[in-house]
């Protein structure tokens, strides 16, 4: 049975009053934390040590209150609490699919770029040997891929690094995946294996159009003293913003996934309009040059299976030909339908045939099992309530 819970009451205008709301430290980089400490007058010589303490409590233990920080002096705790919080963005709804997938609708506070509150979705997909968190990098998306539900939503703004990181903090809060708030004596600490083991930037948005925030977020997510996700377990997915690929590789060391979906430019131009700017040949050349790609660190090519559109054996053979020389694996994604779409998912037998051709050419070609379809949490089904909210705000403003 699908369950859906409204966790919080809807936000009021006062909740989003930037000037009055104290800033949260949860989700900041080390530099951000150091700056906050300086603001409350912490001595320079203690800065490294104090930052490390905050870091440990926020990212390792999951502290949601300064009172939890037992090895921080009471005076400093009080000073921090006077000026800052450890609040997470508000969870509007939490939905749990029959298969254990969870989807959160998260309300973000207004930012400088947008005076409106905005909402994003974040999905946790538990599996036998791993747990993957699918995070969003933008509110809405500019790409308008024709088969993607998110693409039908207007772009609102980029997420800050803090907002990206907060998605993992929220997930760990909700599924009990922080080692816990116990004294650091090594006893009683649930510090063993984590439930969220992998992060994929496959939620809403195009991560490479928000690269600075993604770079900062990956550095916090992968920090061994905190959230501790290995960079090899962080995958950034892109529709192919070619000029940004070298920087992504150099600055994050993250795994790369490319949303390819078609093997001919004319078709890809309609499915992924970004292709008109960066056609297939240029994209694949950037993949050949991607820093750190190797047989041990293969590039994933995502290929959505659309009935009668891109799923023929000839397409499969052309895919194999195109990827020659690239350390690659191919992820076949059955199309997830959404209301009003004209596309259909390829039949199972067709997907199997396609997968066999790719596999027999020497590439891993797993077919992704759709997860969380009943709660519209599967790939490309994410679409937040932002537009409704915006309409409501306009009404309230009397426009
Ligand atoms: N903009 C980035 C990140 C989004 S990832 C990118 O394009 O890679 C989301 C993945 O789900 C992409 O591979 C996207 O093409 C795929 N997808 C989108 N809509 C889908 C749908 N309806 N069914 C299956 N996969 C879909």
UniProtKB/TrEMBL annotation:
Binds 1 [4Fe-4S] cluster. The cluster is coordinated with 3 cysteines and an exchangeable S-adenosyl-L-methionine. S-adenosyl-L-methionine binds at residues 205-206, 237, 259-261, 336. It is found in: Cytoplasm. Coiled coil: none annotated. GO terms for molecular function: 4 iron, 4 sulfur cluster binding; metal ion binding; rRNA (adenine(2503)-C2-)-methyltransferase activity; rRNA binding; tRNA (adenine(37)-C2)-methyltransferase activity; tRNA binding. The keyword Methyltransferase applies. It catalyses: adenosine(2503) in 23S rRNA + 2 reduced [2Fe-2S]-[ferredoxin] + 2 S-adenosyl-L-methionine = 2-methyladenosine(2503) in 23S rRNA + 5'-deoxyadenosine + L-methionine + 2 oxidized [2Fe-2S]-[ferredoxin] + S-adenosyl-L-homocysteine; adenosine(37) in tRNA + 2 reduced [2Fe-2S]-[ferredoxin] + 2 S-adenosyl-L-methionine = 2-methyladenosine(37) in tRNA + 5'-deoxyadenosine + L-methionine + 2 oxidized [2Fe-2S]-[ferredoxin] + S-adenosyl-L-homocysteine. The active site is at residues 121, 379. Residues 127-376 form the Radical SAM core domain. Specifically methylates position 2 of adenine 2503 in 23S rRNA and position 2 of adenine 37 in tRNAs. m2A2503 modification seems to play a crucial role in the proofreading step occurring at the peptidyl transferase center and thus would serve to optimize ribosomal fidelity. This is Dual-specificity RNA methyltransferase RlmN. The lineage of its organism: Bacteria, Pseudomonadati, Pseudomonadota, Alphaproteobacteria, Hyphomicrobiales.
């Amino acid at each position: 049975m699908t369950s859906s819970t409204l966790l919080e009451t809807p936000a009021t205008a006062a909740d989003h009053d930037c000037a009055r709301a104290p800033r949260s430290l949860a989700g900041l980089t080390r530099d951000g934390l150091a700056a906050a400490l300086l603001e409350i007058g912490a001595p320079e010589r203690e800065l490294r040590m104090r930052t490390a303490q905050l870091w440990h409590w926020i990212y390792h233990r999951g502290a949601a209150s300064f009172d939890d920080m037992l090895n921080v002096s009471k005076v400093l705790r009080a000073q921090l609490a006077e000026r800052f919080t450890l609040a997470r963005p508000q969870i509007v709804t939490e939905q749990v699919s029959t298969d254990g997938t969870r989807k959160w609708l998260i309300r973000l506070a207004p930012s400088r770029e947008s005076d409106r509150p905005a909402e994003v979705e974040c999905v946790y997909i538990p599996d036998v040997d791993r747990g993957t968190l699918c995070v969003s990098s933008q509110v809405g998306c500019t790409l308008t891929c024709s088969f993607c539900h998110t693409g039908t939503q207007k772009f609102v703004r980029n997420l800050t690094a803090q907002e990206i990181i907060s998605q993992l903090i929220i997930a760990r809060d909700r599924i009990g995946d922080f080692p816990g708030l116990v004294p650091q004596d090594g006893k009683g600490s649930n510090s063993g294996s984590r439930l969220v083991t992998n992060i994929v930037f496959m939620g809403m948005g195009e991560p490479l159009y928000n690269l600075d925030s993604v770079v900062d977020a990956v550095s916090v997510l992968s920090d061994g003293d905190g959230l501790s996700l290995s960079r090899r377990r962080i995958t950034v997915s892109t529709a192919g913003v070619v000029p940004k690929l070298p920087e992504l590789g150099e600055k994050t060391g993250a795994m790369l996934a490319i949303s390819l979906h078609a093997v001919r430019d004319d078709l890809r131009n309609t499915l992924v309009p970004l292709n008109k700017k960066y056609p297939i040949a240029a994209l694949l050349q950037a993949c050949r040059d991607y820093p750190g790609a190797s047989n041990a660190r293969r590039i994933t090519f995502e290929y959505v299976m659309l009935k009668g559109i891109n799923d023929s054996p000839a397409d499969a053979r052309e895919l194999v030909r195109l990827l020659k020389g690239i350390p690659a694996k191919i992820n076949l994604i059955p199309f997830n339908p959404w209301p009003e779409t004209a596309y259909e998912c390829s039949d199972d037998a067709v997907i199997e045939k396609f997968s066999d051709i790719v596999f027999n050419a020497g590439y891993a070609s797993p077919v992704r099992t759709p997860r969380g379809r009943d709660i519209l949490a599967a790939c490309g089904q994410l679409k937040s309530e932002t537009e409704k909210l915006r309409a409501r705000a306009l009404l309230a403003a009397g426009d």
